[in-house]
Structures are given as structure tokens and as C-alpha cells.
Design goal:
elongated; D-Maltodextrin-Binding Protein, domain 2; alpha/beta; LysR substrate binding domain protein; single chain; 3 domains; Arc Repressor Mutant, subunit A; 11 strands; 306 residues
Length: 306
């Protein structure tokens, strides 16, 4: 394989278009197609799923994307070592893997600040759960991850950067308004239908830990439904399907509008850390350092890795 083939591959993946990739590379579309055909033949894999509207990475293409990007970045570093002038058309992209809560409520702010400081750098966001973030980092699918819990692994560094409050939420009904006025502990939740996130969710893991710290085990809960998306949990609680433990970030609007009632776990609240995730064995990339620097400034944390 050649660097030209890999650059065509990454440009197509970024633009979801053979035509746009060809324009960026100042070559013809048939040439780009030939690069990809030869690369696919050499690897024995289909790298893209092509439709009439756009081009998407296939599962095989997705698995090598970050490797290809890293090879191009290394080639740029070698070239820049012997050249003072910067190539204006040089490819640079940061890939972020994020679980749902940081992805929905913190990543937009992070990327807005990032783009203002590094307007020449593009970014790609992979949305998954906390376990998926660790898999993306260890499989070289992302430069940096953002996760809602610390997963047990010796392959990743977990760098805390945000204190996220978890609260119990219910529908805003007369029943729960009375409980809010009279309850002196959390024992009442054992009798309620409880809605959970999926097993790989950081919110679920941390909610279970916090409830156990208040003397309530997961086995004592009447788990009535499990959902993969935060918004589905929120809407289910609003519609009376059950109660749930949620990040305050996810339900502030609904609480303010009176759609949900909140119950703090204690007078001081219940908190979990949100983490940046990097791979242990490899050197932190420049793009990763840039993101970490933005996060450190936004959330006023000291990061020793910088």
C-alpha cells in the first residue's frame, strides 16, 4: 500500500464522498477510485459502503481508519523535520470516542472552544457507551475518549475532569410530590418500577455504586425497563413508566419546566467523575494533547499528562 492510497482513504472517510476527496487532493475522481480499488484488493476487504447519497466506512474500513490517519500524521512529521514551510493542505483530524452524557452535554462546548483555537483541525466523534470508549481507545479507533465511569483495565489511563451529579428523578405527580415532602430516606424506591440504562453505561454503573453506598443494592430494585439512550429514559420517566437515576446535565431542562421531580441522594448530593481516556502504552498524540488542554481550561482542572 502507498501513502497516496491511505490519504485518499482517509479523505473519503472524512468527506463521505469520492468527489470531495478528489477535489481536496487535486486529482481526478477516477484516480481516487483506482487508489481505493487497489487498496481494497491488497487488503482483501471492502472499505466503504456506497449508496446513491453518500459513502460510509464499512466495518473493515472503520477498523483501520485511525491506523491510516496515524500513518499519515507520522509521514507529515517526517516531512516537516526537513522542511520549514507548512503544507496548507496537510490533513489533520482528531477522533473522539464519547459515552452519552459527556457526548451530549459537554462535547459541543469542548469542540466549539477547540475549533476557535485550532480552526485548521477537523474532528470526528464516535458515540458509544463507556465500555465502548475503552474498546475504541485500545483498538486505535480514537485519539481520546470521554467516559462516565472508570472501567477496570490495564490498557488505559482515566483522567478525571468533571464532577457530575447523579439524581433520582420521577414524574411530577401528586404521589411523588407527597413522597418528596415526607420521605426521610430512599427506602421507598424499592417499591417503584426502576428504569436503567444499558449494562455498558457509565451512568448505570455509577448509579448502582451510589445507591449501594446508601444501603440499597441493585437486587432490591424492581427494574422494569432498560434503554440504550438517555433521552428514552427521560421520556419514559416523564410518561410514568418508572423512576430513574440520571445525570443532572441530562434533566435540568425537564426539572425547570416542571416535567420531572428531582430527589437528591443526600444533603450534599451524589457525584461521579467523568473521565478523559487515553491509551497507556502509546505516546499521547498532538491532537489528544490539544483536546486535553481545552478541557483543562474549560473545567479548571490540572492535568499532569500535559
Amino acid at each position: 500500500m502507498t501513502l497516496k492510497q491511505l490519504e485518499a482513504f482517509v479523505r473519503i472517510a472524512n468527506n463521505k464522498s469520492f468527489t470531495l476527496a478528489a477535489k481536496e487532493l487535486f486529482i481526478t475522481q477516477p484516480t481516487v477510485s483506482a487508489y481505493i480499488n487497489n487498496l481494497e484488493e491488497e487488503l482483501g476487504a471492502r472499505l466503504f459502503d456506497r449508496t446513491t447519497k453518500e459513502v460510509q466506512l464499512s466495518e473493515e474500513g472503520d477498523s483501520i481508519y485511525l491506523y491510516a490517519k496515524e500513518m499519515l500524521e507520522l509521514a507529515d512529521k517526517i516531512q516537516s523535520s526537513f522542511s520549514v514551510e507548512e503544507d496548507e493542505n496537510k490533513l489533520r483530524q482528531v477522533v473522539i470516542s464519547t459515552s452519552s452524557i459527556p457526548g451530549q452535554f459537554l462535547v459541543p462546548e469542548i469542540l466549539s472552544a477547540f475549533k476557535k483555537k485550532f480552526p485548521e483541525v477537523d474532528f470526528k466523534v464516535r458515540e458509544t457507551d463507556s465500555e465502548g470508549v475503552v474498546e475504541d481507545i485500545t483498538n486505535h479507533m480514537a485519539d481520546i475518549g470521554l467516559a462516565g465511569t472508570e472501567i477496570s483495565t490495564n490498557k488505559c489511563n482515566f483522567i478525571p475532569f468533571y464532577d457530575d451529579e447523579l439524581i433520582l428523578v420521577t414524574e411530577n405527580s401528586e404521589k411523588y410530590r407527597k413522597i418528596k415532602e415526607t420521605a426521610t430516606n430512599l427506602d421507598w424506591i424499592k417499591n417503584e418500577d426502576f428504569i436503567m440504562r444499558e449494562s455498558g453505561s457509565g451512568t448505570r454503573r455509577e448509579a448502582v455504586k451510589l445507591l449501594e453506598s446508601h444501603g440499597i443494592s441493585q437486587n432490591e430494585l424492581k427494574i422494569s425497563a432498560t434503554f440504550g439512550k438517555t433521552v428514552t429514559v427521560v421520556n419514559s420517566v416523564i410518561n410514568g413508566l418508572g423512576i430513574a437515576m440520571m445525570s443532572r446535565l441530562a434533566v435540568t431542562g425537564e426539572i425547570d419546566r416542571g416535567e420531572l421531580l428531582e430527589f437528591k441522594l443526600s444533603k450534599d448530593g451524589g457525584y461521579r467523575k467523568l473521565y478523559m481516556v487515553t491509551e497507556k502504552k502509546n505516546k499521547i498524540s498532538d491532537g489528544c494533547k490539544d483536546i486535553m488542554g481545552i478541557v483543562a481550561k474549560l473545567y479548571k482542572v490540572n492535568i499532569k499528562e500535559l
